[in-house]
């Protein structure tokens, strides 16, 4: 079992080392593609094990649970790792044509793989402090990727991104310290039991809000999202696609994990804050997007607004709402990464991502038009694409609770999403190119065309498959949500049956 | 002793916050470094302070004596210091590179990545 859990971490790290050694030749990029494919296979095997057994846990170094380093995969973790594998592979293939040799020599592929390792680690760890360490691994790799190449615009964006993320990191660390002081444990499963014995519930809520802010910055929720639209449009397209797909979602995952497993004492208080946050995040994100005039900037603001939907699922905290949150996470990563990849192709053949400087893509590159429409409509929630079901479940969940306003906001934001997508469509695809250019996919070399279009088409097909056959995916999300709401299995698998009852400080007292 | 360190953590966070409110990015980073050290101390205190009792098991015994220092927070702090050191070294280098290429350290003059119409 341990190997299954460790493989999604070992594979990208090993690939990173190899890719760094071969960074000067063409081997590096193929090592990256192979490594990502291996990661996808490993994540598939892990998923198989989790589907069969419910929760899979492993103790690294064989130290028993609350003391050793725990890796644990429940359905949510497993599906997140699979999605990481899928996006990782898609972006690695895309990078074959997108990343210049100059960036490869600086170690692009190694950083990319370290990023994947950090993301997988954050999804699989069962220990709060290790979660911090994995966040750092992910963060330092993302810093490197963001400023790789060192254009002035990137440095500007980098300074904002780095400083704000460091603030959230410190807040996270301080929260860990306080939580440890109260409970005497850092193992998530152990914390689930230990927080129930904390006497000072008020202090626990304070720490919960600290975690909410720390993860809120990572997840880019209102009012902590400003670093995201300031930075995501500056690096290479492959980089911004993997950022858009995965990074903020790690923050959302951490929020879901902490606020279903650990901080469930004062749900009325914490989840009401989350509900307001979700509403404002949806609205500000979509309004920001409406004001932008750059392909990638519009998409960046849409990340923010979509994060709101996922937080909404967590905030409503009913089984159906969590089903929606899980479904939304999976759908969103695929769709959003895909849209950024399309933006990259548009820039490649039409010369810019600024909407006023491009046009005419529909006439000369209709295939790209189709490949844009699928994820764009899915993002806006058109049936029968994946986004429709994700939004449908969440709106249904809020209507069930008779939260009319929230349901209304979710629907209106969907409508405004169509507005932005129409703006991109009208400007980039319909209007003639302002410089009279005839942007064609045929202008790319055959190899470039294949490695740019293949990942986009695959992700678009995946979106259609989820949309047309949602039944198994919804059933899966239902199982995942049930595990989240009732973490008995999770706790029992991590701690083992005999450890029940004695937790954290209680265990220390037992020794004394 | 706990109280003393707690007060010190408070003072460090207050000073750090003051520095972080500055427009100068370098001051911001210095403030951040102060707060990160305060966070490290916070973890240290959270593990309870037990002076002059190292976590050692005497000869012939199976468990340590009654009260020993908690080794775990110290290990955590050590990890956090190492990670923090790496991150801040990176952040300082980045700010220096930014200063070289943009010619300013003032955060409100860093508008290169913002949309055109905002720049006027």
UniProtKB/TrEMBL annotation, chain A:
NDH-1 shuttles electrons from NADH, via FMN and iron-sulfur (Fe-S) centers, to quinones in the respiratory chain. The immediate electron acceptor for the enzyme in this species is believed to be ubiquinone. Couples the redox reaction to proton translocation (for every two electrons transferred, four hydrogen ions are translocated across the cytoplasmic membrane), and thus conserves the redox energy in a proton gradient. One of its GO terms (biological process) is ATP synthesis coupled electron transport. One of its GO terms (cellular component) is plasma membrane. Its main location: membrane. It comes from Rhodophyticola porphyridii. This is Na+/H+ antiporter subunit D. It comes from the Bacteria. Pfam families: Proton_antipo_M. The keyword Disulfide bond does not apply. Keywords: Cell membrane, Membrane, Transmembrane, Transmembrane helix. It is found in: Cell membrane; Membrane. Belongs to the CPA3 antiporters (TC 2.A.63) subunit D family. It is a multi-pass membrane protein. Residues 126-416 form the NADH:quinone oxidoreductase/Mrp antiporter transmembrane domain. InterPro entries: CPA3_Na-H_Antiporter_D, NADH_UbQ_OxRdtase, ND/Mrp_TM. GO terms for molecular function: NADH dehydrogenase (ubiquinone) activity. The chain crosses the membrane at residues 6-23, 30-51, 71-94, 106-125, 131-149, 161-182, 202-225, 237-261, 273-292, 299-320, 326-346, 367-389, 401-421, 450-469. Coiled coil: none annotated.
TrEMBL record, chain B:
Keywords: Cell membrane, Membrane, Transmembrane, Transmembrane helix. It holds the Pfam family Oxidored_q2. InterPro entries: CPA3_antiporter_subunitC (IPR050601), NUOK/Mnh_C1-like (IPR039428). It is a multi-pass membrane protein. GO terms for cellular component: plasma membrane. Its main location: membrane. The chain crosses the membrane at residues 6-22, 29-51, 71-96. It is found in: Cell membrane. Belongs to the CPA3 antiporters (TC 2.A.63) subunit C family. This is Na+/H+ antiporter subunit C. It comes from Rhodophyticola porphyridii.
């Amino acid at each position: 079992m341990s190997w299954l859990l460790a493989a999604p971490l070992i594979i990208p790290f090993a690939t990173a080392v190899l890719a760094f050694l071969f960074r000067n030749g063409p081997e590096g990029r193929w090592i990256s593609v192979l490594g990502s494919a291996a990661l996808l296979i490993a994540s598939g095997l892990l998923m198989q094990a989790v589907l069969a057994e419910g929760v899979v846990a492993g103790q690294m170094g064989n130290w028993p649970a609350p003391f050793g380093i725990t890796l644990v995969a429940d359905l949510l973790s497993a599906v997140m790792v699979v999605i990481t594998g899928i996006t990782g592979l898609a972006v690695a293939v895309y990078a074959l044509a997108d990343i210049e040799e100059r960036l490869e020599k600086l170690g692009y592929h190694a950083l990319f793989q370290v990023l994947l390792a950090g993301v997988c680690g954050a999804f699989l760890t069962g220990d709060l402090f290790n979660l911090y360490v994995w966040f750092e691994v992910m963060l330092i790799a993302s810093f490197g990727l963001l400023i790789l190449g060192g254009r002035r615009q990137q440095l500007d964006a980098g300074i904002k991104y780095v400083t704000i993320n460091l603030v959230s990191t410190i807040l996270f660390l301080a929260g860990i310290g306080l939580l440890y002081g109260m409970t005497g444990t850092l193992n998530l499963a152990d914390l689930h039991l230990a927080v129930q014995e904390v006497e000072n519930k008020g202090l626990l809520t304070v720490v919960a809000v600290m975690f909410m802010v720390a993860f809120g910055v990572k997840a880019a929720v209102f009012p902590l999202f400003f670093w995201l639209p300031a930075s995501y449009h500056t690096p290479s397209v492959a980089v911004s696609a993997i950022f858009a797909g995965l990074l903020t979602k790690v923050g959302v995952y951490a929020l879901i994990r902490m606020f279903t497993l650990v901080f469930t004492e004062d749900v009325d208080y914490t989840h009401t804050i989350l509900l307001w946050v979700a509403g404002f995040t949806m609205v500000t994100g979509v309004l920001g997007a409406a004001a932008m005039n750059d392909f990638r900037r519009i998409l960046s603001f849409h990340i923010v607004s979509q994060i709101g939907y996922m937080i909404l699922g967590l905030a409503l905290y009913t089984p159906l709402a969590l089903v929606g949150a899980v479904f939304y996470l999976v759908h969103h990563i695929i769709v959003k990464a895909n849209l950024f990849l399309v933006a990259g192709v548009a820039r490649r053949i039409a010369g810019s991502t600024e909407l006023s400087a491009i046009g005419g893509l529909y006439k000369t590159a209709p295939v790209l038009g189709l490949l844009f429409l699928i994820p764009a409509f899915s993002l806006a929630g058109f049936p029968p694409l994946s986004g429709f079901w994700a939004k449908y479940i969440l709106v249904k969940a809020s209507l069930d609770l008779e939260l009319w306003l929230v349901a209304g906001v979710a629907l209106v934001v969907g409508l405004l999403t169509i507005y932005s997508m129409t703006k991109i469509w009208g400007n980039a695809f319909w209007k003639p190119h302002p410089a009279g250019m005839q942007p064609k996919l045929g202008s790319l070399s055959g190899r470039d065309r294949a490695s740019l279009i293949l990942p986009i088409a695959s992700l678009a097909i995946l979106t259609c498959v989820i949309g047309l056959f949602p039944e198994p995916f919804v059933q899966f999300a239902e199982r995942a949500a049930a595990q989240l709401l009732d973490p008995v299995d999770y706790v029992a698998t991590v701690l083992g049956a005999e450890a029940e009852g004695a937790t954290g400080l209680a265990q220390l007292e037992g020794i004394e | 002793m706990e109280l003393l360190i707690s007060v010190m953590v408070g003072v460090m966070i207050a000073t750090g916050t003051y520095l972080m409110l500055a427009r100068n990015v370098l001051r911001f980073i210095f403030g951040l470094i102060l707060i990160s050290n305060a966070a490290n101390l916070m973890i240290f205190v959270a593990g309870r302070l037990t002076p002059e009792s190292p976590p050692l098991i005497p000869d012939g015994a199976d468990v340590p004596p009654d009260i020993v220092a908690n080794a775990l927070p110290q290990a955590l702090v050590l990890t956090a210091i190492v990670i923090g050191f790496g991150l801040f070294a990176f952040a300082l280098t980045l700010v220096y590179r930014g200063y070289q290429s943009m010619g300013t350290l003032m955060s409100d003059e860093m508008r290169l990545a913002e949309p055109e119409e905002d720049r006027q």
